[in-house]
Design a protein that fits this description.
Layout lengths: L1 E6 L4 E8 L3 E9 L1 H5 L6 H23 L8 E7 L3 H18 L3 E5 H7 L12 E6 L4 E8 L2 E7 L5 H11 L6 H9 L24 H13 L4 H30 L3 E5 L6 H13 L3 E3 L11 H12 L23
Parallel strand pairs: 1-4, 4-5, 6-9, 9-10
Antiparallel strand pairs: 1-2, 2-3, 6-7, 7-8
Helix pairs in contact: 2-3, 4-10, 5-6, 5-7, 5-8, 6-8, 8-9
Bound molecules: 5'-O-[(R)-(carboxyoxy)(hydroxy)phosphoryl]adenosine and zinc ion (ZN).
């Protein structure tokens, strides 16, 4: 069965074709980073318009890469939320219309479920059950994953998401958009420990996170005096240490609590080198290991949506035929059945 995946929830347009027998046949992403850069963040209206421009060329590219035709598509999965309403609607309309034209079933998919399952696309995939650390621009969550469709939220951020904290701190340090990768690369040349930042909630005894205080602490340091470039690098390094230390400590605590040795990391912040290093070390210490999606599948992409849709179909979920549809800009993962 060949499932086409469509992702358009934010600033990446992703299209992919996943075959339940042969794996990923093709995938293509267009990132809007360059377009939004001038504004210092994602402009929703521009994002929606750009998704419209990109979808058909990306579909053609994926079909060519997969050596397939439209008629080979057996089902279509698309991101129905959470995300930007207009951007989601572009992908949803495209997927629903194409499904109707091809007379194939269509499946709305939860964006975070896509991220959660993305490490299963790797050759070396974890077995169920596992703990998942979901770290994106909008979410920081620890989840117990018993199987596809069975997710228990163990803890999440009470305020800013980890990626959001990276982005906002990058802005405070005068770095461009997107902030996360820029801050991470500045941190590589700095020394942690010269500035002292808190490790929020590290001893809270639960699996909750809080990152907004960290951003305020950085703001205080920035306002205290004129920071030189090396100062900024040191502050970036300390910030990265603080965030990754808390994330690693709580992820390991979740694995201990549930007596599980497999940790899956998903979402854009999962691309952070220092986070990976810390998680690998901490999990090795308890005799466990960490599973990551391929680097190109860490950020938003169509492959995880196609894969997620395929898994749901294999589990017997009844797909819809085209017709009335809606997107859900806000959609808590625990409301998923
Ligand atoms: O999952 P994602 O692509 O989009 C959603 O939010 O769904 O995650 C994007 C987030 C952004 O906040 C970005 O700054 C962050 O992931 N990010 C990073 C790195 N690469 C991306 N944060 C820290 N270090 C990185 N290397
Ligand atoms: Zn995402």
């Amino acid at each position: 069965m060949k499932v086409l995946g469509i992702e358009s929830s934010c600033d990446e347009t992703g299209v992919a074709l996943y075959d339940t027998e042969r794996g990923l046949l093709g995938h293509a992403i267009h990132t809007q980073v360059a377009m939004h850069e001038a504004y210092g963040g994602v402009v929703p209206e521009l994002a929606s318009r750009d998704h419209i421009r990109r979808l058909i060329p990306l579909l053609e590219k994926v079909l060519a890469e997969a050596k397939c035709h439209r008629g080979d598509i057996d089902a279509i999965a698309y991101t129905a939320g959470p995300g930007l309403a207009g951007a989601l609607l572009v992908g949803a309309s495209f997927a629903e219309a194409l499904a109707m034209a091809l007379d194939v079933p269509v499946l709305p998919v939860h964006h975070l479920e896509g991220h959660l399952l993305s490490p299963l696309l790797a050759d070396d995939a974890p077995n169920f059950p596992f703990i998942a650390l979901l770290v994106s621009g909008g979410h920081t969550q620890l989840m117990h994953v018993a199987r596809v469709g069975n997710y228990e939220l163990l803890g999440e951020s009470l305020d800013d998401a980890a990626g959001e904290a990276f982005d906002k701190t990058a802005k405070l340090l005068g770095l461009g958009y997107p902030g996360g990768p820029a801050l991470a690369s500045l941190a590589e040349s700095g020394t942690a420990g010269r500035f002292k930042l808190p490790r929020p909630m590290i001893n809270s005894g639960d699996l909750a996170f809080s990152f907004s205080g960290l951003k305020t602490a950085v703001l205080t340091a920035v306002r205290a005096r004129d920071l030189s470039e090396p100062d900024k690098a040191d502050l970036a390094a300390e910030f990265q240490e603080a965030v990754t230390e808390v994330l690693a400590a709580k992820a390991v605590a979740a694995c201990r609590q549930r007596r599980l040795s497999s940790l899956v990391v998903a979402g854009g912040v999962g691309a952070n080198r220092r986070l990976r290093e810390r998680l690998d070390d901490a999990m090795a210490k308890i005799g466990g290991r960490v599973f990551y999606p391929a680097l190109e599948l860490c950020t938003d992409n169509g492959a995880m949506i196609a894969f997620c849709g395929a898994q749901r179909l294999l589990q017997g979920e009844a797909p819809r035929r085209g017709g009335a549809f809606a997107v859900r800009p806000r959609w808590p993962l625990n409301e998923l059945r």
